[in-house]
Specification:
Largest sheet: 9 strands, mixed
CATH superfamily of the largest domain: Vaccinia Virus protein VP39
Strand order of the largest sheet: 7-6-5-8-9-11-10-12-13
Structural class: alpha/beta
CATH architecture of the largest domain: 3-Layer(aba) Sandwich
CATH topology of the largest domain: Rossmann fold
Shape: globular
Number of strands: 21
């Protein structure tokens, strides 16, 4: 699969489609500046719009209704924001709708899944003209006699692009009956704004057919339905870059931008690891089958457990043995474009076949009984729906014509639903009201919503809605309108609520990674996920635990900061107390396009003394090969999770022996040192300077307290910097008094603990690829990137020597695998007081030599002359 070609096409196609859609809207007086009225010569049958040419632009008949629908939706969205945002949102929506449909048609035609087996965008013989244009009446489209005559005339007049547009829309309408959630009826404003051409070599159709290899779509030639996911991720890449630019400026992520900020396509091997070790393990443990397990290349065999643990597992496996394939329920609550669900479908198919089912029967049952999915992004949900059905079509040729249920949904909001319509529900109106209230601003929260509603109540609502659907007549127009509103608005809420509240045998997901959450999301997470609130992915770890049943598995790939950062201590303690990890795979920062450290893991309900498999892949380039070939070398660790629960911060310090873990549980530097994180200036450009930028080197190096300095004083500042041991990296000064005075005007300023400024201590760079500590003379302030610690009982040189030793270096790699050497982490280094006088002498000598070296360069304020002169 040529991902470069896929990426280039998707990014280009988004801009092209937005430009084309905007142009078509502009012809009808709808622009980013506003909406123009039709010209005065317009009639009921034809409307004219000024486009700056001699002849105005005209629309007729159905197009007039479609334009009105377009205006209505923009005005509706305008009420929630402003006109420019509403216009941009609708244009973006139409662009991605046609993008989704185009790539869906391309996938279907290449795999010969089109209902009449006639290609729509291309030709089997390789000619430019699509087969549907060449032989339009072979496509089995629903054409009126007028439309048939129109097609003949367009072909005779060589207006092939017009003919192609008509046929393409007709084909989409045929696909509506097969894939209704992707190919909605196109007699709406999206059809009005469609601009497709097969002739235009700068058009989306031409580039789709010619830029991406056909075999990348063809499942019989190595292509996979996962190409849909890659196209979707790359389509959003520019929007994602825009969102991250806003985040860098401390702009909170709005619910509209959450999908673009958080969508990451999960590499295939990680998907396989998660599915095989959750869904696969569930079945194998109750229905041993070596041939099945052999095909699962990323399945990790369970390590040998103690007798009492094994006895508990044997009881659990008796429950698994009772399961039939139809009983298994699997969900991805952040499904994106459906990659995890698609592979889960394959594994479920293998399970069904091992139980004697035919592929045809199994495919239908998997859709209806086994697979469930949710996402906040409508466009991603459309593609997940399509991908799952294409996988089903691979096993059952009739599945698209059988009206099979597909339990994957975009989460809808209930904002704007008229509560008056609840009268149609009679006594069930109270349940309906609770359901509607639960989904206000639902796209802000997604699957983490906790619903106060039961399956029985949803059943009651469903029965009532069914009764309303079957009703043929109403006493008045209001009853009819209310009933229609209930059917259209409440039914989707029932479906998504059921997906949220039922329990699952396997919860498998790659959740959103987002620390800079909106105010609503922050408040909701504090109320419902207090210990997990520091990142969206952490909240989903808890949610995955809540969604699985008593014997189920949860499998996730997330950021790895929760394994060790101090902010997640409460979260770790709770997880270790309530869950047992089957396996944990630290992946490092290069596993996929995340750009930061990640970890994949599988867990189940707590089993005391359960031994977990850790395979450290963080520094391995061929990560998937390491798992498939079981070539772990020194990367495999086996631990009872209880030992982590007993350590001070409950960090997952897996890459060490049990002996090392016992040492970590003993005396640490926290008994001897006082750690301090430091200040946050709030505006470095205003308050910080390099020392040589201050006039006449006029800065205060002798202050002993904040009270001794003035607003004019510049104070030496530790600000982290490059790796260096013992002494140095004295580069910055700070206008400390002014910064402290300004903190009421700048809420970003944090002063730290000024009582510990100017004291002798130890400093280091909190973010660095190597751990090096330096002695800080008196007279310095320090910020969060140059944290400090101070001796409780003197002996500062002894502790500096210990912390710069190979022993400390060994343990800090265990304690802080993510290279975040914050003050709370550093003091967890084991401490042993031994040979103090000798260590202090060596440390003093090292500090002296390092100072001499630092001062031999002009970047030191104590520089006198070069040592060679």
């Amino acid at each position: 699969m040529n991902k470069t070609a896929i990426r280039n096409f998707a990014i280009w196609a988004r801009n092209k489609l937005i430009a084309d859609v905007s142009y078509k809207a502009g012809l009808m007086g709808i622009t980013s500046e506003g909406i123009s009225d039709a010209l005065s010569q317009s009639t009921l049958d034809v409307e004219f719009y000024d486009i700056g040419t001699a002849e105005p632009y005209a629309i007729r008949g159905e197009e007039i209704k479609q334009r009105k629908g377009l205006v209505d939706i923009i005005r509706q969205k305008e009420k929630e924001s402003d006109y420019a945002t509403a216009y941009s949102s609708v244009i973006e929506e139409v662009a991605y709708t046609w993008f989704n449909r185009l790539i869906a048609v391309r996938f279907m035609e290449v795999n010969d899944y089109m209902p009449a087996h006639v290609r729509v965008l291309s030709s089997e013989t390789g000619k430019l003209e699509p087969d549907i244009v060449t032989t339009p009446f072979d496509a089995e489209l629903e054409l009126t006699e007028v439309e048939k005559q129109q097609i003949i005339e367009l072909k005779n007049d060589n207006k092939l692009d017009e003919c192609f547009r008509l046929l393409f829309i007709k084909q989409c309408n045929v696909l509506h009956s097969m894939l209704p959630r992707l190919f909605e009826n196109t007699s709406d404003y999206s059809e009005l704004l469609l601009n497709v051409s097969f002739v235009d070599q700068d058009g989306v159709v031409y580039h789709l057919v010619h830029d991406i290899e056909e075999d990348d779509f063809n499942i019989e030639k190595g292509g996979q339905v996962e190409i849909i996911g890659w196209l979707y991720q790359y389509y959003n890449s520019e929007l994602k870059d825009e969102t991250f630019a806003l985040l860098k400026n401390n702009v909170k992520v709005t619910k509209e931008r959450i999908p673009s900020a958080t969508q990451l396509f999960t590499p295939d091997w990680i998907v396989r690891y998660m599915v095989e070790n959750s869904l696969g393990r569930l079945w194998i443990e109750g229905h041993p089958n070596d041939s099945l397990k052999t095909g699962w290349k990323y399945y990790l065999d369970e390590v040998e457990q103690e007798a009492d643990v094994q006895a508990q597992l044997d009881e659990i496996r008796k429950e698994y043995a009772k399961l039939s394939p139809e009983d298994i329920k699997v969900i991805d609550p952040c499904m994106g474009s459906g990659h995890i669900l698609v592979y889960a479908f394959d594994v479920l198919m293998q399970i069904y076949e091992s139980a004697g089912y035919t592929q045809r029967d199994a495919a239908k049952s998997i859709l209806e009984n086994n697979l469930f999915g949710l996402d906040i992004d409508e466009r991603a949900a459309q593609l997940a729906y399509f991908a799952v059905l294409m996988k089903a079509r691979q096993y059952n040729r009739r599945i698209l014509n059988d009206g099979a249920i597909c339990n994957v949904y975009a989460i809808r909001e209930s904002n704007g639903i008229d509560m008056a319509a609840l009268e149609s529900l009679g006594e069930s109106g109270g349940i309906g009201e609770r359901l509607i209230n639960a989904f206000v601003d639902a796209k802000e929260y997604g699957s983490i919503l906790t619903l106060d509603i039961t399956d029985a109540e949803l059943d009651e609502l469903e029965r009532k809605v069914s009764e309303i659907k079957e009703k043929n007549s109403y006493e008045n127009m209001f009853d009819a309108l209310n009933s229609e509103a209930i059917i259209n608005d409440v039914t989707p809420l029932i479906l998504q609520a059921r997906n949220m509240i039922q329990k699952y045998d396997a919860v498998i997901t790659n959740p959103p990674y987002m620390g800079n959450m909106s105010e609503k999301l922050v408040e909701y997470s504090k109320e419902h996920y207090l210990k997990y609130r520091y990142d969206f992915y952490a909240i989903f770890i808890k949610k995955a635990a809540m969604m699985k049943n008593a014997f189920g598995f949860s499998a996730l790939v997330t950021g790895d900061s929760w394994l060790s950062l101090s902010s997640y201590i409460s979260m770790r303690k709770e997880i270790l107390s309530t869950e047992s990890f089957e396996s944990i795979l630290p992946l490092g920062a290069d596993a996929f396009e995340a750009g930061f450290g990640t970890v994949a893991f599988v867990f189940r309900d707590k089993i005391e003394k359960y031994k977990t498999t850790y395979v450290d892949l963080s520094n391995i380039s061929s990560k998937s090969d390491c798992i498939t070939e079981k070539d772990y070398n020194d990367k495999l660790f086996i631990h009872d999770n209880e030992i982590f629960l007993d350590t001070e911060g409950s960090e997952f310090t897996y890459p060490c022996s049990d002996k090392d873990l016992k040492i970590l549980k003993g005396k640490t530097l926290s008994d001897e040192l006082i750690p301090k994180a430091g200040l946050v200036a709030g505006n470095n450009d205003l308050y910080l300077k390099l020392w040589y930028e201050v006039n006449d080197f006029d800065f205060n190096r002798t202050a002993e307290s904040v009270e001794q300095i003035t607003h004019k004083d510049w104070i030496p500042l530790h600000k982290g910097g490059g790796y260096r041991k013992w002494y140095g990296v004295h580069e910055y000064v700070i206008s400390l008094k002014k910064m402290i005075s300004d903190r009421t005007k700048n809420k970003a300023i944090r002063t730290g603990d000024p009582d510990y400024f100017f004291k002798e201590g130890i400093t280091w760079s909190t973010l660095s690829n190597k751990f090096g500590l330096r002695k800080s003379p008196k007279g310095f302030a320090y910020n969060t990137k140059g944290s400090m610690c101070f001796a409780k009982h003197g002996n500062i040189d002894y502790y500096l020597g210990l912390m710069n030793s190979v022993v400390a270096s060994y343990f800090i790699k265990i304690i802080a695998p993510n290279l975040d050497f914050n003050s709370g982490t550093v003091i967890k280094i084991p401490c042993k007081l031994d040979k103090e006088e000798e260590v202090e002498q060596i440390t003093e000598m090292n500090v002296s030599l390092s100072k001499e070296d630092w001062d031999s360069f002009e970047t030191s304020w104590d520089f006198k002359k070069h040592p060679l002169i």
